[in-house]
Amino acid sequence: MFTSFSTALSALDAMSTAIDVVGNNLANLNTPGFKDSTTYFRDLVTESLGAGLGETQVGFGTGTPMTIRHFTQGAIQSSTGVLDAAIAGDGFFVVDNAQGNQLYTRAGSFQVDSSGTLRTNTGEAVQGWTTMDGTTGKVDTNMVISNIVVPVGGVKQPAATSNMTLDFNLNSAATADATSDHSETIKVYDTLGSSHTLTVNFEKTGANQWSYSVTMPGEDLAGGTAGTPTAISGASGTLTFGTDGQLTSPANGSPIPIAITGLADGASDMSMNWNPYNAAGAGRITQFGQPSAPEASSQDGSPASQLTRVGLANGGQLLAQYSDGTQVVVGQVAMANIRNPESLIAVGNNNYQASALTATPAIGVPNTGGRGDIQGGSIESSTVDIAQEFTNLIVLQRGYQANSRVVTTADTLSQETINLIH
Predict the structure, then answer these.
(1) Are 333 and 366 in contact (CB under 8 A)?
(2) How far apart are CA 56 and CA 43, in angstroms?
(3) Which domains does the chain have, with CATH numbers?
(4) CA–CA gap between residue 164 and residue 208 (Å, rounded)
């Protein structure tokens, strides 16, 4: 009878632990990336009474319960934070704390500190890659992961125009004289980021033939006359069309060179290629019986521009957006895949650290090697089910009350036994 005291007390202690777990789950109902824990009870060794072999067995109660964290997928919700990210699938973000210890988290509420380091909202440094491959121009993900440092308040270096295209139609019904004159303009950039407007002039010279010449404002050239267009030496020639209105000369694969020397702003001489064909080999310039009119133009130069913001895109790429509208990939967030995440130890701030039982984390690019994908502008919600937790709470409360009744009953019986002696 007296073992019932320790048996019931072990149950009370186990129920208290389980209620603590439920309380922690409910407390983190709105914690991003939080994973709920479940309590598992286990009985203690039993005692055989009498001479029989296990005919009468009395247990000694329940042991300290086990808690297992379930790393199931939480609901992904859209967020207004440009650096917020959620993991869809398996895996963890890799972060370093102030002591340099590597931790893992599912919470993707990131921000940039004053030095440009990408951090969690509790201060851990997010790990990934920022070194650019000189050959491909992309982030080199073959290197060891390190703190992600993004440009803060930087200026993007200007890029001089080296290629340009013009898409338009020339009127095949035009008369071969000055009345057929047509011009197209395009803005290009030099090595200092200054813009220059080129004007390409066309005039029909015969059946299926048009002459062209390129001019630019005189004030843009050293020795030029302000307000007077200056012809660019060597940037002139003839366009020839077939009877179907398609461009035949210059031939595909022979871009028209445009060289500009002696710029007034002191920039380097410009050397550009004007390609009248697209990647499929079709002419960008046509000659049909419609009015001469432009369709599109493009060039690959850009002016110097200020950094306006840094955002995290799908796939974990960090994009720097500049005032000229261009976006540049400046980093890649790393992810870790852990085969047995239940063995991780929670250390607070939504972070986990590896235990002695944890398999070696496989760190790499998202959406590879069993790792999930990263969705930018999103946050993963907590996996706590409030209805299930309240159900558990009621069951545990009833269990606690029942075992406390065992204690009071055993106490009453022990008093009766003592009274027999007197």
Answers:
(1) yes
(2) 16
(3) 3-68+391-421 (no CATH), 76-150+331-380 (no CATH), 163-299 (2.60.98.20)
(4) 24
